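Continuing the series of single-chain predictions for the mutant panel. This is the parent chain; the variants come on the following pages.
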Amino acid sequence: MSHGPVEAPKTFGMMAEFDDHQRLLKAASAAHAAGYRKMDAYTPYPIHGLSEALGQAPTKISALVLCGGVAGCIGGFALMSWITLIAYPMNVAGKPMYSWPAYIPITFETTVLSAALTAVVGMIALNGLPQPYHPVFNVERFKRASQDRFFLCIEAADPKYDTVATREFLGKHSAEVMEVDA
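Parent structure:
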């Protein structure tokens, strides 16, 4: 029983494997200088300067955490003010109704809580997680990316991508080059 012609798998991109992080850095810098923009690197540990070599923009997480912390600070202070002045006004030991120094511990705690939650949720959202599947998982050797190998993947969606030219470009950097199926 025939179900029609079998289509060849679409190519996600071209991946190069390196055994040294210095060669990965050089290849990433060269790829960015050559005009490739849709690429990513996979390493077993963080490498200083890799994001700059890939041409990645600075992360927005610090601005998000600052906004979350400020919102938590204002929210905590407003909550304490509302409680003591409007919802449950109570004169304790002749102290003024608006005794803001007593609000500091709660304000601090809501600031930290809000900033921490913003950091976690922001990091997950900006990283596009959860991502249970990615085309690079189709490459058998990619398992070593979490052990001792370094990978640079140039996506086929890149305007400069050409299968032959990209393979030759990556091959110039002493790397084993392989195609990644989508």
